[in-house]
Please model this.
Amino acid sequence: MKSNNNGFTIIEMVVAVGVFAIVITVSLAAFLNVSDIQRKAEALRVINDNLNFSLETMMREIRSGSNYRVGTGGTSLTITSGSGGDIIYRLNNSRIEKSAGASPFIPLTAPEINITNLFFISQGELPGDKLQPRITIIITGSAGEKTKIKLNLQTTISQRKLDS
Model:
């Protein structure tokens, strides 16, 4: 006698569910990986934008300024601007801050950026040392909430006016 069953066996169902579970697991892992990469890229963009603004501001003042004075321990920098007033850069509460003249300090970096070290090195600032005045800035920090991006940055800026 012929049996006319139009369905799937239990083994076929188990295999189909197993294959489906594997495909979903691989797809979910790929999606989570892309999401993590996107978060890292966003944190890197925030770092780049903020530090680019901060460094451009400092470099403009250092190039056109004179009379560089590095604070005790190298953690602050005072510059005499082209107009004669003092400009001060410092690290305070994990942010780079600037003060021009008698104005209060304003932050140059966003709260998302956590600056752990800001260090200034001055070279050639003494009259008659035959060296062009220049400042080296060293910055270390991080950004990102869940995905931390660490940064180490060093740049040297020389005074535009020739040393006499």
The mean pLDDT is 86. Residues 143 and 149 are 5 Å apart (CA to CA). The helical segments are 10-64. The chain has one domain: 10-158.
